[in-house]
């Protein structure tokens, strides 16, 4: 339980630092997210009003509501088009900062006489995994927050009494997600550590391959490396 909380705390702190470091890009992403979800907020009310107007012979009013719906759809498409460059302005600098930290850490350890064989794995593979995970988390969390907010806003404009039935299950689902999120973070962290261990063992094996063959230690090292692979 403690490991789960620590992993979740580290993850949220990292995400928070990356977001706070670029307030302008975050502001643009939020603004365009609001524009993107405009159809979600408008759809139910516009369709309902247009249907009622057509049914009672108010054709002009129905056409106005359909025009509002179409305009919101165009606005949402435009907002979606402008949104992803704003998200990239957050994600790509985060990846660059991560590369600098990994390179600086590897150089620091090497200068202190402790060569870091896992640095190659971090730079070539794990940095991209973290970058993709961060970008995916940002996209999914942003989409969820703004879409749910727009849907609830639309619901409140049509049937506010139904919101009492919708919000409690939504909150319960969010709490359940938060409860299992720490476990997923621990698993992901163990996977990354396992990859570093394999990279370090492989580097050491490649450097001392002749000595291994000369001493007849192939089977032992193969078993050790195989155990590391199985653990990962």
Tell me what you see in this structure:
By secondary structure, this protein is mainly α. The chain has 8 helices and no strands. The protein has one domain (2-231). The chain has helices spanning 2-20, 23-36, 38-55, 59-111, 119-158, 163-207, 209-215, 218-231. The longest helix is centred in the middle third of the chain and has 53 residues, at 59-111. The chain is elongated and about 95 Å long. The chain starts with a helix and ends with a helix.
- Calculate Rg over CA atoms: 26 Å
Give the count of structural domains. Answer: 1
What is the overall number of helices?
8
The gross shape turns out to be: elongated
Tell me the distance between the termini: 21 Å
Mean pLDDT: 79
One letter per element, helices H and strands E, the order comes to HHHHHHHH
Question: Would you count the extended β strands for me?
Answer: 0
Structural class: mainly alpha
Strand content: under 5%
Uncertain runs with pLDDT below 50, 5 residues or more?
none
Q: How much helicity do the residues have?
A: over 70%
Major β-sheet annotation: none
Subcellular location: Cell membrane
Membrane topology: Multi-pass membrane protein
Keywords: ATP-binding, Membrane, Nucleotide-binding, Transmembrane, Transmembrane helix
Transmembrane segments: 62-79, 134-156, 162-186
